[in-house]
Batch of 2 targets.
Target 1
Amino acid sequence: QSALTQPASLSGSPGQSITISCTGTSSPVGTYNLVSWYQQHPGEAPKLIIYEINKRPSGVSDRFSGSKSGNTASLTISGLQAEDEADYFCCSYKRGLLFGGGTRLTVL
Amino acid sequence: QVQLQQWGAGLLKPSETLSLSCAVYGESFSGHYWSWLRQSPGKGLEWIGEISHTGSTNYNPSLKSRVTISADTSKNQFSLNLNSVTASDTAVYYCARGRRWGLVTYYFDFWGQGTLVTVSS
């Protein structure tokens, strides 16, 4: 059982915005700004899309944004595109690295 | 552009030792920490451990007794050994470059392609 909780699945239509939440028990998300997000397409390695809550690596679309409120981090994808259909994982740190169980995003 | 290329045996029997290696291209091995992670359907993503160019290692306490991570800096390579494997070690294993905040690795910006390791009798 992951210490970071994400919704198992979400869906949205092209052009819409969706938000994936990541909630930690015992405040792993709230304590530090050490939250990152990864996108994973089937059969591929995870790809870093957000680090330190809201920073994007070079080359990552600005349609991806991150935020945090209290003990919940969020990933927002705006202007959904078919290529955004993938699994998304959050990660944080508290006395060890913690990963969320992943959210499968379906673009309808 | 940093690239990580990994390889190793994909089918093991219980009690055998898992051995994987990862070569780093396009980046100096020095100045970074290099990690192994794994992903299984039942347990999601799990960090296994890491090594620095100086040979300093850190391991996930849950695996520490069975894990050894080593490096050959002359080849820009690092390796994972996990002994006494069981079916619960079946997973896709990834090597990755970790980024640090102080003494803590907290995200991974470049990943290997992954190796499916199956443990079955």
Target 2
Amino acid sequence: DTEVTQTPKHLVMGMTNKKSLKCEQHMGHRAMYWYKQKAKKPPELMFVYSYEKLSINESVPSRFSPECPNSSLLNLHLHALQPEDSALYLCASSLTGGAQPQHFGDGTRLSIL
Amino acid sequence: AQTVTQSQPEMSVQEAETVTLSCTYDTSENNYYLFWYKQPPSRQMILVIRQEAYKQQNATENRFSVNFQKAAKSFSLKISDSQLGDTAMYFCAFMKARGTGNQFYFGTGTSLTVIP
């Protein structure tokens, strides 16, 4: 069982919809990450939160909006997405924001119609 | 800039045999970490093994071991006694040792199939 829980596992939405992805961990980790992964490609970093503050935003379009309400929870709010945003979205956490192994969730498979 | 290269897009191995996945990287950093992650069809990225660049001893984790050659910037993964559950995409990754919010630099991955 994964220690990083992502919901939902699958999401289909239209380009005008607003939805959110949720990620939760209870390992006491203080750094959390969002990645986007296309089929047969490595994950691409989108955002990093360190101690609940956004520390890295890899030039992600504003239609993706991250939120870290507390140290255990990370959300990714989606609005007006494009078909090319269809991908697997992975959440990860690490003990600190330093050179620590990251623990990944199972991901949310997102399809944009 | 850091780059990670995995030159084998696909590999296969017979069950119970040994297979080696290659990874090379380029960096000007002197201290860093290297990782191998596996991603089975279940999608979760699972840490296989981690190597600290300042340690000369190669890391091992049960059937998984690495051959770390710092001067050659090479970091290969050896899987012994391959099992069907080892079938997965394997990603080599680099991370700097300094700073916060450190990010992975991933290779393009090697798809490994274990044949019964």
